[in-house]
Specification:
Elements lengths: L1 E7 L8 E6 L3 E8 L4 E9 L4 E6 L5 E8 L2 E8 L8 H12 L2
Antiparallel strand pairs: 1-2, 1-7, 2-3, 3-4, 5-6, 6-7
Length: 101
């Protein structure tokens, strides 16, 4: 599974801090309470259910990823690199780019 840290930017989000986990079969979104570093909500979808997925690399330090699933619109801002996380962010983005082709 690929993993990354992201900022959620949709009304469907429980909080704006999220961990995204994704493989060929599913995507798991863990919403975090930043003050106590606790998972407050978990959402899971089959990767095949994602519709209208768009990845925008146009912005400088971050990437915007949006998609529809089960009638809900989701949008995340993903930093290209977070130094303490090593290559994790970049690895996730490369996997995502390949999955969207």
């Amino acid at each position: 599974m690929q993993i990354c840290y992201a900022k959620a930017q949709s009304l469907s989000a429980t909080t704006n801090q999220a961990i995204l986990l994704m493989n060929e079969e599913k995507i798991v979104i863990l919403f975090l309470n930043f003050l106590v570093t606790k998972v407050v909500h978990k959402v899971e979808f089959a990767t095949s259910d994602l519709l209208d997925s768009k990845l925008s690399f146009e912005q400088g330090l971050s990437v915007s990823w949006s998609f529809n699933v089960q009638g809900q619109r989701w949008r995340f801002q993903i930093m290209k690199q977070i130094l303490p996380l090593g290559t994790m962010q970049g690895d996730f983005l490369e996997f995502l780019r390949g999955a969207l082709r």
